[in-house]
Amino acid sequence: MQTELQKLWQPMTHPGTVQADPPKAIKAAEGVFITDTNDHTVLDAVGGLWNVNLGYSCQPIKDAIIQQLQDMPYYSSFRGVTTDTTLELSRVLTDWFGEEKMARAFFTSGGSDSVETALRLARQYHKVRGDKDRYKFISLKKGYHGTHFGGASVNGNGKFRRNYEPYLPGCFHISCPWTYRNPFDEDDPARLAQLCAQQLEDEIVSESADTIAAFIMEPVLGAGGVIVPHSSFMPMVRDICDRHGILLIADEVITAFGRTGAWTGSRLWDVRPDMMCTAKAITNGYFPFGATMIGEGLVDAFESNKDGAGEINHGYTYSGHPVGAAAALATLTQLKTTDVANNAGARGKELGEGLARLKEKHRWIGDARGIGLMHALELVSDLDTKKALDKKSMAVVGEAIYENGVMVRISGNNVILSPALILTDEHVQRIVDAIDAGLDALTQQA
């Protein structure tokens, strides 16, 4: 197995590290637990990768996949054809996102595809309407929008940009409402939200509003370190976009389908975006699939177009894949039946309280933040200077947590938690206890 692993180049990993330190190979999963090839079983507090909201043992989804494979494993959804399963899912999803006024679904193979689709359609929408100068995008620093050149261009973290620049022209970033670290030295979340919104307005004026296609944001920032904006921020952004004729794209790849404690992140803040990017939990992680949801305003502009500017010359071989669509239909049924959004809210509150207690105990925790079942601990070597904990120390913490029965995600100096939404209070305590042990191991080493 060691030799086989050393032939693997992993996503988001320096290939040299695989040679020196091969990854853990996971061979089995059940419920909220995973087992590696050394027969070590741990609670998966990463939830696959933010996506296994219903855990690993959701049999109705597996059955739906098997049945669809038997009936018809694949057919295209390009011009003139599609599948009955794909059509049914489009109907179900527009109902699911009815509160956000989403009226159409464009299917993709995953989150990066969904973002790419939204960015393209945003530019095209303005061309359809005659605003052909509107091509620019604004987004948040620390925001994460995938790995395609479009999504990576609006990413707000240099870590995901530096090695692949130059990116698309016309992409600009403003400060995100992150109370722990921000250029305004402001720790009041409401005031910080206002300052960031003012910065957005200033950027729009500086670039000229009639050149800007869209503002894209995660309702709660995920990969950037689980940054939860004040409740006033996204509504202010919506208002600013409306006043300047700019589309608002909600990147809900992580936040859709219950993770925040609401069924969508936008709904959490009572906002209706113009488009929504979804993926991850749409099939519970059991099949690569995504959907860009199109709001009512865009639908009319495209479908009433007569000169060909509205023709969508964009799509993927696996757009609307019938097996993925079947998995998504079964997933949505299970989500609704189990009402995991409420459980995410309740268990998330318990998890947040547990992490707050750890913050009082351990000098390494600079910040503990989160909402629903997406949380992060930001670890520092000095509480006063907020100096980020070094990579080697973070590895010590992560490994000790794993040895104590829990898988977490180490990202920079953050311990990120995104467990399945079927978590119980006993599971929450196990996560807190394992992190406690991991931080104790760091203290002992220091």
Describe this protein's structure.
- By secondary structure, the protein is α/β, with parallel strands linked by helices.
- The protein folds into two domains: 2-57 and 339-445, Alpha-Beta Complex (Aspartate Aminotransferase, domain 1); 61-338, Type I PLP-dependent aspartate aminotransferase-like (Major domain) (Aspartate Aminotransferase, domain 2), CATH 3.40.640.
- It is built from 15 helices and 16 strands.
- The chain has helices at residues 2-5, 15-20, 47-50, 59-71, 84-96, 111-128, 149-154, 189-207, 233-244, 265-268, 296-303, 322-338, 340-361, 391-403, 425-445, and strands at 26-30, 33-36, 41-44, 102-108, 136-140, 171-174, 212-217, 247-251, 275-278, 290-295, 365-371, 374-382, 387-388, 406-407, 409-411, 414-417.
- Strands 4-10-9-8-7-5-6 form a seven-stranded mixed beta sheet, with helices on both faces.
- Helix 5 (84-96) runs parallel beside helix 12, helix 8 (189-207) runs parallel beside helix 9 (233-244) and helix 13 packs parallel to helix 15 (425-445).
- The longest helix has 22 residues, at 340-361.
